[in-house]
Amino acid sequence: MNPTLLLATVCGALFLLVIALARRIRQLSERLDAADFQQRSLSTTYGRITEQWFPLMDQYPYDPQGFRFLGTPIDGVQFEDDRIVFVEFKTNKSQLSKLQKHYRELVEAGEVYFEEFRFTDNG
Q1: What residues does each domain of the chain span?
Q2: How far apart are CA 22 and CA 28, in angstroms?
Q3: Residue 55: exposed, middle, or buried by beta-carbon count in 10 A (0-12, 13-18, 19+)?
Q4: Which of 20, 32, 59, 83 has its C-alpha lying 20 to 30 A from 6's C-alpha?
Q5: How far is CA 29 from CA 18, 20, 43, 87, in A?
Q6: Would you list the DSSP string of 11-68?
Q7: What is the mean pLDDT of each run of 10 residues along the chain (123 residues)?
Q8: What is the pLDDT of residue 116?
Q9: 106/74 Cα distance (integer angstroms)
Q10: What 3-state class would DSSP assign to 90?
């Protein structure tokens, strides 16, 4: 066989192999991304379920009868005889969001108020 033809055939075969490997790598990468997304989604779902039940667990330091679930931007409010506590539940390594940190800073700065609004029926 002609050496030039042999070299061209080998180069062509290697080129096709590289193309096939690149496609396979892209497919595997997409599968890993999908699995990562699914894992994060399951963690989020687990966190949402847990935060709704956490006030009923033994580790919760307050009377669960005084807890009111909000969901967002904080999980809830605990009403005690001598104070009101904004409560955020976290699982594993989850962190406060930027907005939750901001609200915590407002509470720590005393920027929390009670306002009463009255509406009358003009009918």
Answers
A1: 3-108
A2: 10
A3: buried
A4: 20
A5: 16, 14, 21, 39
A6: HHHHHHHHHHHHHHHHHHHHHHHHHHHHHHHHHHHHHHHHHHHGGGSTT--S-GGGEE
A7: 82 88 89 84 74 85 94 93 94 88 97 94 75
A8: 95
A9: 13
A10: coil
